[in-house]
Amino acid sequence: MERLQKMLAHAGVASRRKSEQLILDGKVRVNGKVVKELGTKVSQSDTIEVEGVQLEKEQKVYYLLYKPRGVISAVSDDKNRKVVTDFFDDIDKRIYPVGRLDYDTSGLLLMTNDGEFANILTHPKFEIDKTYVARLKGIPTKEDLQKLERGIKLEDGMTAPAKVKLLSGDKKTGKAIVQITIHEGRNRQVRRMFDAIGFPVQKLSREQFAFLTLKGLNAGESRELTAHEVKLLRVMAETGKRH
């Protein structure tokens, strides 16, 4: 299910704000009935008309992008910085990112025009594992990493327990490579978790989302998800099976 104004915007009818005004003005019908409530939820099976014209149901598409560093996880940027949709100039659908990766974080990002799919993968109650590899300043001890495994207090509350593994540590350079798996999606969460134990992140990449990996892709490249992968992601989110 998706908010009506959001579906109108994604379908290219108008901006989100203008779509809301169309609803308030009584110009939108759902299954033959005028709808004026902005919070109304609709699904792909509903028939939607705008000013008497039926909304065409856009074919749903699903992509896996290897987002490079220095790219915004958005469809546009007021500072004219590169955004993730710039890598899909040949796609005629209005796609957008599922969740986000920070500007200075690279790695696996899903792209779609399916709002319901995006919602179940990003909603806090649907726990999907996300695995990152971080290069740290300093070499954390086993005890340091256990703090993250148990959950650590940040300014916005305790984190859920994480899975953490030290991949390498170089005493000469004073740097470490650590793998961490979380299922939450707070803003800059991984960086803040390592900051909290005193080991700032110098470089960060998301290597895995559920069972999906970056195998076969270089930074800036993408591939379409298979129908089986899309179905499996839905099942994992809805059943709570994170692996």
TrEMBL record:
<dbReference type="Pfam" id="PF00849">
    <property type="entry name" value="PseudoU_synth_2"/>
</dbReference>
<dbReference type="InterPro" id="IPR036986">
    <property type="entry name" value="S4_RNA-bd_sf"/>
</dbReference>
<dbReference type="InterPro" id="IPR020094">
    <property type="entry name" value="TruA/RsuA/RluB/E/F_N"/>
</dbReference>
<dbReference type="GO" id="GO:0120159">
    <property type="term" value="F:rRNA pseudouridine synthase activity"/>
</dbReference>
<dbReference type="GO" id="GO:0003723">
    <property type="term" value="F:RNA binding"/>
</dbReference>
<dbReference type="InterPro" id="IPR006145">
    <property type="entry name" value="PsdUridine_synth_RsuA/RluA"/>
</dbReference>
<dbReference type="GO" id="GO:0005829">
    <property type="term" value="C:cytosol"/>
</dbReference>
<comment type="similarity">
    <text>Belongs to the pseudouridine synthase RsuA family.</text>
</comment>
<feature type="domain" description="RNA-binding S4">
    <location>
        <begin position="2"/>
        <end position="65"/>
    </location>
</feature>
<dbReference type="InterPro" id="IPR002942">
    <property type="entry name" value="S4_RNA-bd"/>
</dbReference>
<dbReference type="InterPro" id="IPR018496">
    <property type="entry name" value="PsdUridine_synth_RsuA/RluB_CS"/>
</dbReference>
<dbReference type="InterPro" id="IPR020103">
    <property type="entry name" value="PsdUridine_synth_cat_dom_sf"/>
</dbReference>
<dbReference type="InterPro" id="IPR050343">
    <property type="entry name" value="RsuA_PseudoU_synthase"/>
</dbReference>
<keyword id="KW-0413">Isomerase</keyword>
<dbReference type="GO" id="GO:0000455">
    <property type="term" value="P:enzyme-directed rRNA pseudouridine synthesis"/>
</dbReference>
<protein>
    <recommendedName>
        <fullName>Pseudouridine synthase</fullName>
        <ecNumber>5.4.99.-</ecNumber>
    </recommendedName>
</protein>
<dbReference type="InterPro" id="IPR000748">
    <property type="entry name" value="PsdUridine_synth_RsuA/RluB/E/F"/>
</dbReference>
<dbReference type="Pfam" id="PF01479">
    <property type="entry name" value="S4"/>
</dbReference>
<keyword id="KW-0694">RNA-binding</keyword>
<dbReference type="InterPro" id="IPR042092">
    <property type="entry name" value="PsdUridine_s_RsuA/RluB/E/F_cat"/>
</dbReference>
